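Lecture 7 notes: from sequence to structure.
We start with the chain below.
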Amino acid sequence: MSETYFEEKIITDKKIRNYTAEQCKFIDCEFRNCSFEECKIVGCVFVNCRFSDCTIISLESKHSEVKNAVFKKCNLLGVHWFDLLPSGKYAHPIDKLENCFIKYNTFEEMSFVKFKFSGNTIQESTFEECNLSESDFKNCRLEGTRIFKCDIRKADFTEAKGYIIDIASNKMKQAKFSFPDVVALLESLEIKIV
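Predicted structure tokens for the same chain:
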């Protein structure tokens, strides 16, 4: 099957549901006000693409990768980022998140060193075995978001709300938290505060 190739293309106002895209390559493309619901990508590559005011719901991926994507004012629901990890050690799937609503996402074995999460809402999602050292989660709404087996050393969670961080499994040295939300860290110890 031949590959469909797009470079520096601006794609606007597309509403796609239950569609399978195969063997597509998008380089330096911009998606504006698009909606992709319950779509599947097979053998697709997205490099340096920008998504603005887009909604992605229940994306399924097979043999596809995303490199250095920027998301602004997007809704990302049910995305499993491990399935989109790029080959090689130097590229990252996500370069920037700005004013996004993220729910039911899983981030596994990803590097977010010094990444800025502040200004985003991340709910009922999971970070597992990720490097989040020196990342900025200030003022994030993290309701039900679980952080497990991650490196969160020197990460900033001041004024963040709703996180579930397992003290025993994470590297936490010099991470910053604020009261009263820091008390939630004690829940994993199964102790009672009276």
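Points to note: Residues 1-73 form one domain. The longest strand covers residues 94-98.
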